[in-house]
Amino acid sequence: MRKFLDTLYLAAGALAALCILTICVLMIGQSVLREFGVRTGATNDVVSWLCAASAFLAMAHAFKHGDFVRVSLLLEKVSPRVRRTLELASLAIACVAIGYLAWWATRFTYESWEFNDMANGLLALPLWIPQTTFMVGSWLFFIAVLDEMVLVARGARPTYVVAVEERHAQGDFSADV
Fold this sequence. Notes:
mainly alpha; 0% strand
């Protein structure tokens, strides 16, 4: 199960990176085509959807690799036992909040499908299609936080803490700037 989940987070991160690459290609293409007088208005719609997709699909991967902002001043000053309790409490609160987000993202996407909502930009596309990345990314983030809570509850150190410590041990402090 561990290998499957890690592969799932990595695949979502890779898909988010692909969305960012596509944004880059579209923006450069739009700039070049504009010089030749070609209208590319719908590109902005696609870029906005890809921005949202890249943000939500990257969340699980970023979380598991310690790339989220954490305020750890208190955690650094307490005993390991208290730190573990605080980590578990934080992860439980995060599970509730992110689970709520994922549930509403699913409901929101389903209602767009049910009512056949269409995008009101230049590209008439059913809204549930780009909203699906919001829903999938939210669920993956929820699964990642729940996964982390189970690991910490079993006595393991948080994956995101280990990832940051490994980067620091290699002399990489770029994420701390």
